[in-house]
Amino acid sequence: MPSPATPPGPEAFSGPPAPPGPEPAVDASFAVVLDRPRYAVVAKSGNLPCHPSGRYRANTLERLLRDEAGFDGVHFVSRLDRETSGCVLVARDAEAAGAFGRAMMARRFRKTYLCIVRGAWREPAGEDGWTDVLGWIRPAGDAIVHKYRVFERAASEAEWRAGDPATAARTRFRPAPWSLLGADDAPEGWTLLECEPVTGRTHQIRATLRGLGLEVAGDKLYGPDRAIYGRMCEGRMTDADRAALVLPRQALHAWKLAFRDPFAGEEVEAVAPPTLPLPPAGGGGSLGG
Fold first, then answer.
1. Which residues contact 75 (CB under 8 A, 6 or more apart)?
2. Contacts for 210 with CB less than 8 Å, ≥ 6 apart
3. Are 113 and 195 in contact (CB under 8 A)?
4. How many CB atoms lie within 10 A of CB 287?
5. Beta strands in the chain (DSSP E)
6. Each residue's pLDDT expressed in tens, for the chain with a length of 289 residues
7. pTM given for the model
8. 102 exposed, middle or buried (CB, 10 Å; 0-12, 13-18, 19+)?
C-alpha cells in the first residue's frame, strides 16, 4: 500500500472540458441562516458551486442569491467546494467584504466542519478531547490535477513553528456523535469527525486526513483513486467508481461559523443543520486499495 501522503499514479487527466456545452445539473437548495444589513450566512447544498467556474456558469449560488434571494451584491468572504455543504459568509457590498477579509486574514473566524471518514479514528487526544494535527500542505507537483495537495506531518510543535509558514497547516479533530446526523447507531466501519481548521490552506481537512491514512466518504479527489475526479469531470465515471466512493458526494459539511461582527461589535455564530448522507455499514477497502 502506498504511503497516505503519496498520491497514487492514476491515468493522465487534462482537466475539465471547456465551456460551452450543457451545464451539469445542481442541487439548487440553499437557506439564509443569518441575515444582516451588510452580510449574510447562507447554507448551501452539497452539489452547488459558489460562483462560475469550469463547466458551471449559471447554476451557481451567486446567481441564486441575486435572482431568487434578492441580493444586490454578492461578495463571497468564505467559499466552499461544490460538493461541500453548509455555511458560506456573503458580504453584501465591497466595504463589508474588505472588513471581513481583514478579519479572515487575522484568523478571527472559527470554522467547524463535520465529515464522515472511512475507518476508525486512532489519534491520541488532549485533555479537551481534541487532537491537534500540525504539518504542511503543499501542491503535489507531479499531480495530474493541479489543485491536488499533499500533507506532511510535523514531528513536534517546535518543528512546525520552525517550518515554512506559507504552507503551515493546523487542524483540530475529535470524534462526534452520530446523533448529529439523526442516526441511532454508528455505521460499522465509519467515523464522524468534528474538524476545526485553524489555518486556511486549500483542501486542508481532506488533504490532512489523507495524510493521516483516512479518506472522506465520497471524495473523488482524495479518496480511493484521484483518477475518479478526472473521469467525473469528463463525464465518464463508472459503476466501479461509484461503488468505491460509497456516497454520491464528499461527506464534508461546514457546520458552524463564528466571528465578531465588524459593524455591530457582537460575537456571532451561524449554524447550518447537517445534511450529510449516511453511509452503509462496513467501511470497505482501505485507502489507496
1. 90, 91, 92, 93, 94, 96, 97
2. 4, 5, 150, 151, 222, 287
3. yes
4. 20
5. 30-35, 39-44, 75-76, 85-91, 109-118, 131-139, 149-153, 168-175, 190-197, 252-260, 267-271
6. 334 444 444 444 444 444 456 888 999 999 999 999 999 999 999 999 999 988 888 999 999 999 999 999 999 999 899 999 999 999 999 999 999 988 888 778 999 999 999 999 999 999 999 999 999 999 987 656 778 999 999 999 999 999 999 999 999 999 999 999 999 999 999 999 999 999 999 999 999 999 999 999 999 999 998 889 888 888 899 999 999 999 999 999 999 999 999 999 999 999 999 999 999 876 655 454 3
7. 0.89
8. exposed
| Residues 6 or more apart in contact with residue 39 via CB below 8 angstroms | 77, 89, 90, 91, 92, 96, 100
User: Could you identify the residue written with the cell 453584501?
Assistant: 92
Q: How many residues does the chain have?
A: 289
Give yes or no for a contact between 86 and 112, defined as CB atoms under 8 angstroms apart.
no
CATH architecture, domain defined by 19-109+257-275? 2-Layer Sandwich (3.30)
Helix, strand, coil shares, percent, the chain, to 5: 20, 25, 55
- Angstrom distance (rounded) from CA 12 to CA 220: 15
Whether the ω angle into residue 20 lies within 30 degrees of 0, i.e. cis, is: yes
Q: Is 282 left (phi over 0), alpha (psi -120 to 50) or beta?
A: left
Per the CB < 8 A criterion, the answer to whether 41 and 88 are in contact is yes
Q: Are 54 and 16 in contact (CB under 8 A)?
A: yes
Instruction: Please measure the distance between the N-terminal and C-terminal CA atoms of the chain and give it in whole angstroms.
Output: 7
Using CA atoms, how far apart are residues 80 and 47, in angstroms rounded to an integer? 11
